[in-house]
Amino acid sequence: MKVGLKTQIWPANEATVAAAARCLAEGGLVAFPTETVYGLGADATNPAAIARLYEAKGRPSFNPLIAHVGDTAAGERIARFDPTATKLAEAFWPGPLTLVLPKTEDCAVADLATAGLDTIAVRVPAHPVARAILRAFGGPVVAPSANLSGHVSPTSAAHVQSDLAGRIDLIVDGGAVTVGVESTIVGCFDAPILLRPGGLPRGEIERVLGRPLARPPQDPDQDTGQPLAPGMLASHYAPRAQVRLNAETVEAGEALLAFGSNAMPGVDAATAVMNLSARGDLNEAATHLFGYLRALDSKGARAIAVMPVPHHGLGEAINDRLRRAAMGR
Ligand code: TXA
Ligand code: MG
What ranges do the domains of the chain cover? Predict the structure, then answer.
């Protein structure tokens, strides 16, 4: 990697959106906000740009990328939608849902972006800045979360800067994101499968489908054989600190990541206390999760005790990311 690029960081406005689209067209790497987390965009049809993107993130190139498009019609040019996929797209796009579908025959997305699979992950993001950039660029944009591979996803432009400054061309600062965890990924195969819990709660998808979503036949975490969502490797969301889940006490030397009331034996001796949502709101907790893990890391916390978080709604995605964080690297 040619580190030492001058990374520009510009506020989101019309001129920045135009510059972002030009940069993408020239093969550049542009970080921009989506409603879930910040993404690192590259022209999905440009293999050289995609190779740079994998390099900038330090991401293994066997881990495929999500193609972001402006609308379902653009999605249908790169992926084959069955009736289930169409139903989900109609119900939830634009929004925090990614569909894994068979590629179309003349799919313009580079093979490098899909890691040679015959399926492709597609998403229509809802964030106005992401939408403006996609409109101005006019083609599919691959965008993994804009963090170094293995770090937690960025929910602000400052997070992107601390991971990727000097490695990418432009950061479009559109403020804090509104969802805070990555999109929910559903594979539309014979039966729809929940490949990654995320910003769209499973219950909402099941209501539209009128049936429960299956989980992958093998736990993608186990790293046995070929995982269905290859990025769901156990170590994916690790902060530096050790993470201890479902804590009922704070042990000596631990920081506390609370949910609801802070009250807990040992809390007075905690090295730091951050509360995901004092009023016990899972949506609010999701918006704080990655930022607080980063903040506790940068305060030098060596261990983080995490209070139990309920499993419903966005709690499924929050608990999924916490479980991965607890596995360490
Ligand atoms: O919310 C999000 O989805 C964010 C924003 C930027 O859109 N993006 C994001 O991308 O989280 P990334 O690259 O960090 O995660 C994409 C996940 C990975 O786990 C990858 O393995 C999986 O999607 N994936 C991509 N293509 C796939 C495919 N064809 N089959 C199965 N899994 C796929
Ligand atoms: Mg990621």
Answer: 8-209, 242-326
